[in-house]
Specification:
The strands form 3 sheets. This protein has a 4-stranded parallel sheet with strand order 3-2-1-9, with helices on both faces. It has a 3-stranded parallel sheet with strand order 6-7-8. With about 220 residues, the protein is α/β, with parallel strands linked by helices. Helix 3 links the parallel strand 2 and strand 3. The longest helix is centred in the last third of the chain and has 19 residues. Helix content is about 50%, strand content about 15%.
Length: about 220
């Protein structure tokens, strides 16, 4: 398992964390292959269905054989039992929609990166006290870039990753407000792409997003 700080560094360098779930194992693998071919090296597979852990295990197996430099994590982790299964299946990081003392303790004991979701200063102070370096600002679309800008002024040592409603139209405002990276699901991997299997469009979207973020960071 990679060191926590190396996973954080990889997410920040990439600039965005693609996240998705699909009930079909083959389709899940095809999406991962397309993302990798487009230059992605860190991916979150979300725990949104009963097939999630089974599919995740297949994705890890695929990455071991084809993409050894790919970092895979499991998202929507709500309890330590799911977290334990994720680690057993090869997860190198965990993502949750909220903060949990149980998951904070578990991830610390397992020495695995855990990215909790936060939406209040109280939650963020708790995360800060637990030396968690990267925070998922969630749901981002209910908070807005102005809220993030205020947080970065109060918590300059923390890294924030807005997630929820991030898309091509608003991503520049998030980076302008101080985002270290963004989490992006349907804004990148749309329902239309999933329904039609248009991996060419997914590759085009991913390449465009990589270029867009590079332009924000290096004007």
């Amino acid at each position: 398992m990679r060191k926590k700080e190396n996973v954080v560094k990889a997410i920040v360098q990439q600039g965005f964390l693609p996240l998705y779930f699909h009930p079909d194992e083959k389709t899940s693998i095809e999406i991962l292959q397309t993302l990798y071919q487009s230059g992605i090296r860190v991916v979150e597979y979300t725990n949104r269905g009963k097939q999630a852990l089974r599919n995740f295990r297949s994705l890890v197996k695929e990455s071991y054989s084809q993409f050894p430099d790919l970092i895979l994590g499991l998202g929507t982790v709500l309890d330590y039992k799911t977290a334990g299964k994720a680690i057993q299946n090869g997860a190198e990081f965990l993502v949750s929609p909220g903060y949990s003392r149980e998951l904070a303790k578990f991830s610390d004991n397992e020495n695995i990166l855990w990215i909790p979701g936060c939406m209040t200063p109280t939650e963020i102070i708790t995360v800060y006290d637990n030396l968690i370096p990267l925070i998922k600002l969630f749901p981002a679309n209910g908070l807005g870039p102005g809220f993030l800008k205020s947080l970065t002024e109060v918590f300059p040592d923390l890294l924030f990753m807005p997630t929820g409603g991030v898309n091509f139209a608003n991503i520049e405002s998030w980076f302008g407000a101080g985002a270290a990276a963004v989490g992006i699901g349907s804004g990148l991997i749309s329902k239309s792409i999933l329904d039609t299997g248009d991996w060419y469009q997914l590759k085009a979207n991913t390449s465009a997003l990589i270029q867009l973020i590079a332009a924000f960071r290096n004007p």
